[in-house]
Amino acid sequence: MTPADLSMTVLHAVRRAVDENALRAPVPARVRVERTRPGGRGDYASAVALQLAGPAALTAREVAEILRERVVGAPGIGRVEITGPGFLNFTLDASADVHRALLDRVREQGMRYGHGDAHAGTPLRFGHPREVRAAVTADAVGRLARAQGARVSVGCDEAPDPDWARLGIIGDAREAEPSSTEIRPVPAGATAGELLGRLGPDATRWGLLRPAGHDRAPLGDDLLVQGEGNALFVVRYAHARTHALTRGAALLGFTSAPGDTPAREALALLALVADHPGVLLAAARHRAPDRLARHLEAVARAFLDFHDAASPLPVGDEKPSAAHRSRLALAEAAGTVLAGGLSLLGISAPAHL
Description:
The chain has helices at 3-19, 48-56, 60-71, 96-109, 132-147, 192-209, 231-252, 264-285, 289-309, 322-344; strands at residues 34-35, 44-46, 77-83, 87-92, 123-128, 151-156, 181-182. By secondary structure, the protein is of the alpha/beta class. The strands form 2 sheets. The chain has a 4-stranded antiparallel beta sheet. The protein has a 3-stranded parallel beta sheet with strand order 6-5-7, covered by helices on one side. The protein is flat.
């Protein structure tokens, strides 16, 4: 179950409670769920009961109990607890069926895994000044919004810099319309030509997009270093490694197949793969491609930890087993998430490094 699935499950519980007259409150447009903070309970938490308590003329814990009764037992949810003044805490079902369904969904949807229809048909207009970081950020925001079904146009306040085309920004010559949402991050302090000459297009885009828009973008030569201190290298290396595993498995005569409940080492990576649709939606809603960049870094590091702890390929005299096929399926899902995410940031994901 993804965060988006969980949000929809809780929203359905609210609607059911209202329909059954157990809860007299307006049904919200959406229910927000978040990863439980360190020291909290379960995998996810929601404050929806606190949001509905006032309109329902009930305490938040009473609302939480009404919703808990209607969520317990839903597919993909293992346990629901109420903590504090009325927070709902969800522990997801870690069964093999749930994991298989997740990996099957990633395989079926491929690079479009995580895309949605939250903005289906909605016209969105973004404008930006004639500055390279603003142009790259607006381009990435547009890509994220299109992945949620929006009809997007992006315009610059002035004639665009010709070098922007080398950063994958095409057709940006329209004037920004008065109704446009302005994209105006902290300027890069350099032109596109200067950055491209020193870093190339991929490192330039990553360097401009990885920090939050209100932070200065570090654009040093460390973006080209092939080491674990360079997040872009880690993400692309992890993606290339997933392809190497698939090639290695083919040489050994086996392919991936989601199997039984994976080892403990896989759970962190599975959770991040499941989070991907929610991350894409949040990045689109908040016009924040940095959220996606940070998520890709977390996926890459979790994959490398998983790979080191439980190799998807046989080691030494081992023969390929169901466990290896299952691990390979998870590795390939991680590779799909990394490739799809990099594509939305306008960055290439080579199969070889």
